[in-house]
Design a protein that fits this description.
mainly alpha, Proton glutamate symport protein, about 75% helix, globular, binds aspartic acid
């Protein structure tokens, strides 16, 4: 039977949702439940998926030396690509100077965002949960990941009679969650239709005005994101991983479109895991370690965005940042992207970390609120793209044969 491929179904759903949201905003309540239902289903599987995938991944990696080597490569990849992204952002924002002469009357009240500046030490401290059940219940990703890595590692240290059934249990649990994921993925086009139609309907009236006032700022963020996604990361793929960037992008089309639509790396994670494993051919051992971690920690798009936004705000307030201050922005943008959760708008809230580090007014966030949603969609896509590139590159350096090898 003739069947349209999933990524085409999603693209069609995207186009239809934009048209629907734009022309029939009064009927939006009839379709919004589709998006809510889809997101609920994704969120339903996130915690058990992360838990089982990391525990099974780490316990299958086995000894401390292998784990250490893989961990080191992973961190090296995360930090180098995030820094590259930030530097691209820094260049774009310094060339385009979007904040110079920006309209400060545009300030909105930010108190309802509940902005609190998280100290850098706190971000690290938060990784260790005081109560793991609390962390599971509140879906505190960093804490769950940290705990799962420890469990996965120490399972390999106990006697065989306990170790084997436990490893089997978590491997089985992971298989089960992936089966469930494949089922939920089938509904992606419908879910995306619901989500995007609502976003378009809500922002419809203000779109032209917003685009007019903040267009240079948006151009700086989008230009940087495009550069990073289409030039920097493909170069990494091709030369470090010997992976064909086009084949890899094609293999990743479903999670990338989902990341764009949901603005959430975490919600997209089940689809990312599925695509990197089944379409790119990366082993479960590697995906189950790198992707859940990447969805929370490795956010190139967010890092770039943080840097551009902070400097835009400084420019708008007429504050000239010294070289040292710009270096502080780069460093804190990296930490903010690590600390940001993989959920919509997390990056916006994390900007307060940078603003307070360089002594800029927190109200500055009000300047960029209006266009955050659209930029969030784009930076989340880059976040997921970078995670998937990292998984492929690291798999290749570990000697795996992929389905997306460079020709
Ligand atoms: N929404 C982004 C993500 O999930 C995080 C951010 O707000 O920058 O990857």
């Amino acid at each position: 039977m003739f069947k349209i491929k999933l990524h085409w179904q999603i693209l069609i759903a995207l186009v239809l949702s934009v048209l629907f949201g734009f022309f029939f905003p009064q009927y939006i309540e009839y379709v919004s439940w589709l998006g809510d239902l889809f997101l609920r289903a994704l969120k339903m599987i996130i915690v058990p998926l992360i838990l089982t995938s990391i525990i099974s991944g780490v316990s299958n990696i086995g000894d401390a030396q292998n784990l250490g080597k893989l961990g080191l490569k992973t961190i090296l990849y995360y930090v180098s690509t995030s820094l590259a992204a930030i530097l691209v952002g820094l260049t774009f924002v310094n060339i385009l100077q979007p904040g110079v002469g920006a309209d400060l009357n545009f300030n909105k009240n930010v108190s309802e965002l509940g902005l609190v500046s998280d100290s850098l030490g706190n971000i690290i401290l938060r990784m260790v949960p005081t109560n793991i059940f609390d962390a599971l219940v509140s879906a505190d990703m960093l804490a769950i990941i940290f705990f799962s890595i420890l469990i996965g590692f120490f399972i390999t240290k106990i006697a065989d009679e306990y170790k084997n059934p436990l490893i089997n249990l978590f491997n089985g649990g992971f298989e089960l969650m992936m089966k469930l994921t494949s089922f939920i993925i089938k509904f992606t086009p419908l879910g995306i239709f619901g989500i995007v139609a609502v976003v378009v309907a809500e922002n419809r009236a203000s779109l032209p005005e917003i685009a007019g006032r903040l267009s240079i700022y948006m151009a700086a963020v989008l230009g940087g994101l495009l550069f990073h996604a289409f030039i920097t990361l493909p170069l990494f793929l091709k030369f470090v991983g010997k992976v064909n960037p086009f084949a890899h992008a094609k293999a990743m089309s479903t999670p990338l479109l989902t990341a764009f639509s949901t603005s959430s790396s975490s919600a997209t994670l089940p689809l990312t895991l599925n695509a990197v494993e089944n379409n790119c051919g990366v082993s479960n051992k590697i995906t189950s370690f790198i992707l859940p971690l990447g969805a929370t920690v490795n956010m190139d798009g967010t890092a770039l965005y943080e840097c551009v936004a902070a400097i835009f705000i400084a420019q708008a307030y007429g504050i000239e940042l010294s070289m040292i201050q710009q270096a502080v922005v780069v460093f804190t943008a990296l930490l903010a992207s690590i600390g940001a959760a993989g959920i919509p708008m997390a990056g916006l809230v994390m900007i307060t970390v940078i603003l307070s580090a360089v002594g800029l007014p927190l109200e500055g966030v009000g300047l960029i609120l209006a266009v955050d949603r659209i930029l969030d969609m784009c930076r989340t896509t880059v976040n997921v793209w970078s995670d998937s590139c990292g998984a492929a590159i690291i798999a290749k350096t570990e000697g795996e044969q992929l389905l997306v090898n460079a020709s």
